[in-house]
Amino acid sequence: MNIFIRFSRAALLLCMVACTTVETTEVSEKEEPKNPLMLHEKEIDDLISKMTLEEKVGMIHASSSFTSGGVERLGIPELTMSDGPHGVRPEHGRDWALDNEGTDSASYLPASITLASTWNPELGYAYGEVLGSEANKRGKDVILGPGINIMRTPLNGRNFEYQGEDPYLVSKMAVGYIRGVQDQGVAASLKHYLANNQEIKRSSINVEMSERALREIYLPGFEAAVKEGNVYTVMGSYNQFRGQFATHNEYLINDVLKDEWGFKGLVMSDWGAVHDTKQALEYGTDIEMGTDLNQMPNIDYSKFFMGDTVLTLVENGTIDEALIDDKVRRILRVMYATHMFDERPGGSINTPAHQKTAEKVAEEGIVLLKNDGFLPLSKEVKKIAVIGANADYSMSMGGGSSQVRAIHEITPLKGIKAVVGDKVEITYAPGFEISKEEAVNETLVAEAVKAAAEADYVVYVGGWNHGFGTDWNAGRYDMEGVDKPSLKMPVQQDELIKKVIAANPKTAVVLMGGGAMDVSQWLADVPAILFAGYPGMEGGTALAKILFGDANPSGKLTFTFPKSLEDSPAHAMGEYPGDADTLNVHYNEGVFVGYRYNDTYNVEPQFAFGHGLSYTTFELKDLKISKTGNTLVGNVTVSNTGDKEGAEVVQIYVHDVESSVKRPVKELKAFEKVSLKPGESKNITFQLNEDAFKYYDEAKHGWILEAGDFEIWVGSASDDIQLKETVTM
Ligand code: BGC
To answer: Which residue, by CA, sits nearest to atom 8 of ligand 1?
Structure first.
């Protein structure tokens, strides 16, 4: 199989004009804006008509580690991809032999878990813009993100790459991200479709879930990304779904994605997720990536499932060539939509604007979980002890495929030093090592306790990490391919924290990580806790500004922080990690994922979905609902009743008063983040159409709106509902 070298865009443009007769599709200004994927069908017909079968097949599988094939003769370039989701990944060379020429750095944005905690879709857009611009600069056509798998278990090693447990929140954040990326002329790739909700045995498990859980919980984010975000590419996941691999799954891809939702872009496999030529051809895979990685660096791409075997199957009549044409058509649509045949906006890397976006996302995404009036901290002290290895550890290259070679990474320690200035002495004691062994180092513990005792107060920065260096198999952390073994933080940090607070109870705890951890042993004894996720290259600055009151926290949890693993539905009611023999994972908890479970089964969380404190106080009042047909318009006033500027996320949930099926007590159906000066009030308007009240009926194979009373609950967290109104549908 030929491997073609990428052409320059100018050469391409010339070639397209010279090599093909192009009829452009004119879009008059008066017409409705058209789907950018569908503007060049005639040119695509023309190109396909000129292609040999070999050339077509060359386009539907990888031509290198991160490219799929082009057709040089016709001026069709390779499609170049890069992870994703929170920065453009370092180069891995065409054949995975690391190829770092010092040109593969990028902005390390806060991980998706932190982005989602902002509850600010506009920041989702700004984040996507940075990614798109940097992808452009690095010569990428597709960014492999966003990741939007629902947080089904807190142990999933990739939760940090995803956006939490709620399908509505995920939908809003993902759409912003996708539009931001694609407005830069680069394609986003929505992943992982579908049910890649655990990493353990991700390539072999078979997920079984009810159609209702699929429709109500696991599909909405993907559907919104396709229908509202118009995402250009979708990545199939590794696992099986109802007995068929998700990357070539007839129901998920052909029936739901392409037929029901009308997706016109391309479906690529996850790397090495194709298992069968005929199924891949018939059940919707358009590009096969990453097969035979174990043969690197000598991979023969023509031997991929969607390589030479396809030629034989078409030639002997088993497969209709029209199937291949459809795949090529989808690839060409993405190429046109991403301006691979004309001029794309120029990109740039790590500009001050990109840094500002990274900092803003971190600032709005850090969640204040607990504060007994301890925060913000005073800078008017003599000595502050910063304790915990996470305070001075670079996270950007960790976690697996989402790694980024950050140009700079402001760790919490650096951020605190910069924000506090020279007048205060900062002592740093890591207290533990982020290393393969995970062994407690008693010398480090003793140093940390001493530093704590001698300081005016302590900032502890710990939690999860991405493991040791770039060794993917070194441990079980927030990392691709592995799940965490339990909710217990690594290296016996609970013991360390207890010793630190015994030495100095004036301790603020900052937790990093891709989700919840067990905080039960010391929660009551610390005056303040923050959850920072993975806050990216400016994260230390954002964190320090929050700690010292230069910024007011406004992040909200996108997941339920359980008291123990047993309180988490997949563990309490369902199966995790699945049956060891059959490899089936039954999602027995159904639609009762996250807060839907806690509410319905009266399980008190440690911190609830949507929870997040501020240094000011807010009041919600005057909820008014008007109804036209089955569409509601609501109004509510939110006021800043404290003395600091801040932002509140007004959360709107729907409660079905009486239903013929068991439904979650409440479901998030709208939200808005509002910034307010002290004393200021704003009136916000929200709209709920009838879909917000429906459930999926398995027997009727459709969404049902049951007549009767519903309540609109408005609050500042899922466990802090302040206003209710009843409506009759
Ligand atoms: C991951 C994907 C990633 C791909 C390419 C896979 O192992 O699951 O998320 O985009 O590798 O690096």
So the answer is: 270
